[in-house]
Amino acid sequence: MKVGGYASFNDTVFEGPVMFVQTDVTGIFMVGKAKFSNKGKGANFTSIKLAGDAVFNGAVFEGPVNFALADIARAFTANETRFQNKEQGVSFSGMKVGRYAFFNDAAFDGPVDFVLADIAGTFAAQRAKFQNKEKKANFTSMKVGDNAVFDSAVLEGEANLGSMKVGGDASFIGTVCDGPVTFTGAAIKGNFAAQGTKFQNKEKEANFSGMKVGGDASFNNAVFEGPVMFLQADITGSFIVGKTEFQAKAKGANFAGMKVGGHASFDDTVFQGPLYFVWADVAGSFMVGNAKFRDKETGANFSGMKVGGDAFFNDAVFDGPANLSFSNFAVLNLSGAVYGGALYLEGTNYKEIRAAAVSEEHKSHEALLKLVGQAAYRADVYGNLEEFFKRQGYRAEADHAFIAGKCRERKEYFRSNDWLRWLGSWMLYLLVGYGRHPWQAGIPLAVLVTLGCVLFSPEKMEPQKPEDTSRVYNRFWYSLGVFLPVVDLQADKVWKPKADQSFLRNYVRVHALLGWILIPIVLAALAGLIK
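^ thats the sequence. predicted structure below, dont judge the formating
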């Protein structure tokens, strides 16, 4: 059928099946407040072609509706329209609209199909109700040239927006999603807004994996009652998730491999289940201030993460493990963070690290040394902190970090029953502070030389040769001469303990042996060979 002007069916009641298949209307097609009461075959608008607008505002469809391959040159409006068929629902698959398509306040009792629909302008379904809990609302591969708006809509069943392409912004502000939601592979050229949105399905996930957003993505004050997936999502702008609740305790939230071109903010957010940021890449700052990580078993995993700006973990609370291994941060701020489980910092790189306010630098240094002491032991954890202190010009703190790391290493020897290495490490600590405090060796050296002065008293000594009887004995030079290896002070070549001093005769050997052990250690420490 071809209509040369406009076609108007406002307030019309259609009791039988309605067929507008391949109808061609050169003007406006108006069906406002019409009622299509046939519940069997319903209304068929397949391949209808309209040169003007299609107006269905307030219409009621009791049976199935088919707009597949419809071609609307201008606008399509179905505000406050009721699609009441629960089994076959309504199909807009492949529909083309030259301007905007509005479904504001519409109600869909059955399944909805917008697969491959192409809307050149804005698509709006504000306050729309997709009420079928068994069958999905399917927007797969739908194309919207301008904005896609689902603000305050209600999606009671599954909603599939996978591979959807939006040329402007996508808005889901205040939307309620009772069923699982899929945005896998969706491409949003502008911003993605889901502030205050409720994802209430506790069993199946809200899946944003592979989604691309050309602007910012905002989920402030959103609630996710089920698991969440943002695997490989790509956000060109910032990713804002402040004061949001991730309530799923089993699968939690997964942002592995996510890429954010701006900042990522999770301030004041609560994660009840495990959290994964493995290999995520944030070009700007990463903010998790005052966030709560409640999972005690798996905890929060940021391993391999890359942050180009500051990473703020200030005042965050980790009830379980916190894994920052092999991550890269420009600035890592851990001030005020609380760790109820293990902290992993193996391979963590940073240009700057803080554990207190910038104005409290000394306090921050003390807190950092305490923090690495709480972390799972890895040699590089202490090495990286030592290098940081060196870069900042704090040599004493750098030495403290090095010594603390060696002390942790010694404890590991003890736990593994490696007694020989444990003993050697303990001696290096006592004698030279692992090479950083070589002056410490002066204490046992002085004690041993002094002890020798006491033990090698004149009445207990005699010349080795009769011709040296006239020579003057000096207990200090004798004790020092025996103790120093290689250096020949001659006193130990002239004098010896008397024959009846068996203890002293044996101790001379011990005194010399201790010198051969301790003096090389001191020299190595002074030369920087002990590290």
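The chain has eight helices and 61 strands.
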